[in-house]
Amino acid sequence: MSTVVNSEREDRQQPPGFSMPGVWHLGQRDPSRPAIVIEGKTTTFGELVSKVNQLSNKFADLGLTRGDVVAGLLLNGTEYYELSLACTQSGLYFVPINTHLAGPEVEYIVRDCKASVLVVHAELADKIVGRVEDAVQHRVVIGNAPADWSSYESFTLFSDDTPAARSLGSLMMYTSGTTGRPKGVHRPLTDATPESALEPNRLFFEAVGIPAGPGRHLVCSPVYHAAPGSVSLSLLHAGHTLYVLPGFDAEKVLRMISDSAITTSHMVPTHFQRLLDLPADVRNSCDISSVDVLFHAGAPCPPATKRATIDWFGPVLIEYLGSTEGLVCVCSTAEWLEHPGTVGRPRPDTVVLRGLDGEQAASGEEGTIYFKASPFEYLGDPEKTAAAQWGDFITSGDVGRFDEDGYLYILDRRVDLILSGGVNVYPAEVEGALLEHPGVADVGVIGVSDPEWGQRVVAVVELASGFNDNEDLRTKLDQHVREQIAGFKRPREYIFVVDFPRSAAGKVSRQKLRELANGQ
């Protein structure tokens, strides 16, 4: 079967030219084409553009002008795409917020970005209702709305005429630093048309072998993340139909691929492993021959997992290295098989390594990865912005090396960053939450290798006087952390020590923490 699948796929991956018509054009030219399918309900391109125009005209009626902000605390659904597209054609910033954040974290982002409009799903409203009424003038709930909030249904009852004035808006994603406080990646706006942003995406998809013509893209990751949201939105502009799941369930994902003849999807290595772990009879009962491209990023992929996925799906894996700040490079299956472990071979004028001496690192030497990206600033943090820049290049802190052929290899995913299941966890933020508990005198948080999650969060704790290591304390610490920050950031393991390993300068020795975690 594998040989036949690969041969058929090679025929499909020779497109004569990739069309990127844009959602707005498709809404007029082909309004009945399916745009988004969720739980059996189909929204056509005509219906989607109608709702997008309603939102755009509503924003204008409220007095929003270029550069204003719309924030969304949203589950996977059509509303994410409606709001994003409306902001894109209205010269507004759209800020998607991680739905797993705790209430104080959501409140911080909403206030920091100075949102004029906030839209939340009713299932998530308890995180933010009662926290930001003094800061956000227009507050909307998808579902049953509490007092002083509007319902999304009534909010969008407006003219669906094409807006008289259209200009290019932008996503403003929030990304953390090692200090734990996230910052918005804020890009300057121009008076360009919304369609002007489509050409780079067309070139990218054509380069990675996405065939021309209608496709079917499976969304199985949270769209508030930059990559799943942006990739799916770009393919929507290309005329592909999005099949949206609320989250990742391995068997549901595999059956959706088979039943709906899915052509593309975006996953993280944890997803690959969960698919591989399905029973053989389930895997064998599903036809995956329709898949042209599986994008993956977010964490280093264990070589054995990647090889097994390639053996199963064929040469369809496209890995890329990127961050909220920008794209670094892309790696095809063929390149990875020839250079195992690489994340691709970027052009020398777009990616450089900076060594510890501050100079450009030579081939084979380690260095911080700097790359060229469209201009941006970290909202309200000029020092962080300046620290990320080196001439025309910027960095998100990853460390790597080039081999003699120009292929890039990642050595570390930022200095202290933990990548668990494709999600960033910053130790300083978890440490800050734990230090607020009276039983914690000192703490250090690290990531430890995990076969399923890539890394799991481990806390090394020195207890305060009067507290003892027992299961009751571990339970209370876990509950305490959940109340302060998102549950996915909480430690999965606690190690209690008498003497906490800090250097003479007072810095945490993470190497010693790792030795403790590994039983050395």
Summarize the helices and strands and which ones pair or pack.
Blueprint: H1 2-12, H2 23-29, E1 34-38, E2 41-44, H3 45-61, E3 69-73, H4 78-88, E4 93-96, H5 103-112, E5 117-121, E6 138-142, E7 150-151, H6 152-155, E8 170-171, E9 174-175, E10 183-186, H7 198-207, E11 216-219, H8 226-237, E12 241-244, H9 250-259, E13 264-267, H10 269-276, H11 280-284, E14 293-296, H12 303-313, E15 317-323, E16 326-331, H13 333-338, E17 342-344, E18 351-354, E19 367-371, E20 377-378, H14 382-387, E21 389-390, E22 393-394, E23 399-402, E24 408-412, E25 418-420, E26 423-425, H15 427-435, E27 440-450, E28 454-463, H16 471-484, E29 493-497, H17 510-517
Parallel strand pairs: 1-12, 3-4, 3-5, 4-8, 5-6, 6-7, 11-12, 11-13, 13-14, 14-15, 28-29
Antiparallel strand pairs: 1-2, 9-10, 10-20, 15-16, 17-24, 18-19, 19-23, 21-22, 23-24, 25-26, 27-28
Helix pairs in contact: 2-3, 3-4, 10-12
Fold and architecture overview:
The chain is an alpha/beta fold. It has four domains: 1-21 and 193-324, Rossmann fold (3-Layer(aba) Sandwich); 41-187, Rossmann fold, CATH 3.40.50.12780; 350-412, Luciferase, domain 3 (Roll); 418-517, ANL, C-terminal domain (GMP Synthetase, Chain A, domain 3, 2-Layer Sandwich), CATH 3.30.300. It is 31% helix and 24% strand. It has an eight-stranded mixed sheet, sandwiched between helices. Helix 10 crosses helix 12 (303-313). The termini are far apart.
